[in-house]
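quick one before i forget lol
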Amino acid sequence: MGMILSSGNQTVEPYFRAFGPPTVGFYATRMRMGSGGRKPPGEIFSDVVQSAELLLETGVDAIDLQATGIMMERGPDGEKEVVRAIEEATGIPTYTATQAVVEALRKLNLKKIILIHPLDENAISKEKIYLESVGLNVTHAFGLRSGEQSASVPPSKWVSEAIKQNREDGEGFFLSGSFTTMLEAISPIEKELGKPVVTSVQAALWMGIQFLNEKIGDNWGYNTRPKELGHLFEG
């Protein structure tokens, strides 16, 4: 499985390797994502395709573009254009973390969600627009404003914030952000509140496994899957 990551990301590779199937190899390449308008869309587009072409040389079976922020900025149509360009350049099935989140929420039958984000209202508003454009209803949103070093926020903080931000009209949670410790907060939140939780990293790992399911086979049954991954990984 190949991954295209933000140049500064320190969490996705360790989480995939710690919680993913032991028979799957994970190979990453990196680029400067430039979310929030820091890079022109055309430059991001070409960099993504170039990064995917580098993964082609490793012989991966699927590619995860772990770029939640810039894909939500592009919107679903722009996102599909990027995925299509990668697949045309490499011939490798490709998905984005954002597409994985949407499919994960649908798999869990969640239409009304509570969004928790490491950044501020500007980032949240873009994600709300994206999520609502694909038929999801963000009933409540909260930004921690932790900045670029959101991985330094401990899982316990995400758990406490989920408890504080919980609302009756929210069927479940989406904890957005790849450079975070949110994955480790999934199980405690689900146990405390009884609501499913989806995170950017957890959903991307889940969708990658769907792409590789035929090769993985029965070697990673539901009874052996890490409980930390939550309801999404249950049968």
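fyi The chain is about 45% helix and 15% strand.
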